[in-house]
Specification:
Helices cover 77% and strands 0% of the residues. The protein has helices at residues 2-9, 19-29, 39-55, 64-75, 83-104, 110-173. The chain has 174 residues and is an all-alpha fold. The chain is rod-shaped. The chain contains six helices and no strands.
Length: 174
């Protein structure tokens, strides 16, 4: 909805919102529904659709779909294991987006470059912090469960030792 609103009411575009723009906006945002399964693929599809929107001359502010997809990618627990692949892909996608912005604007695209750095950088930082927080909480839960199991084991050992002591006392007194 936000992407459609920016396409319909944004400034700086050479086209008005029409069926093609709606389809491209859907392509830039609907893949977000699959972010849990394929976060990197969702980022690629959303960014390609968003770059296409800009290439066709629609008025577009910060690319909502790719920004949210990047947040989900940074927040995904599998991201640290695939960091090389992810960094290369994100840099390439950012370059594509900035390249399209440079091709569709006159002069050096300072605003699109700074906007991409700020918006995408912020999305990555927030998503990464969320992932790290979840990991810390999971680690704390694991430690608490281990401590609980250890405490229960120690209680069982103490009970068994006490039973053995009582049995020895009864045996010695008999």
């Amino acid at each position: 909805a936000l992407t459609l609103a920016m396409l319909a009411h944004g400034s700086g575009g050479t086209r008005t919102l029409e069926a093609l723009g709606v389809v491209l906006a859907m392509a830039a945002c609907l893949p977000l529904l699959e972010h849990r399964r394929w976060p990197l693929g969702v980022l690629v599809v959303c960014t390609a659709a968003s770059a296409t929107i800009e290439a066709f001359g629609y008025a577009l502010g910060p690319p909502v779909g790719p920004t949210v997809a990047l947040f989900y990618l940074a927040a995904d627990r599998r991201t640290p294991d695939r960091m090389r692949q992810i960094v290369g892909t994100v840099v390439a996608l950012g370059a594509i987006h900035v390249g399209v912005a440079a091709a569709t604007t006159s002069g050096f695209p300072t605003i699109p470059i700074l906007g991409a750095i700020i918006v995408w950088g912020g999305a990555w930082i927030v998503g990464d912090q969320l992932r790290q927080r979840r990991q810390r909480l999971a680690d704390l839960r694991d430690r608490a469960e281990r401590a609980e199991r250890e405490t229960a084991r120690e209680r069982r050992l103490a009970v068994a030792e006490e039973r053995n002591r009582i049995a020895r006392d009864l045996h010695d007194s008999a």
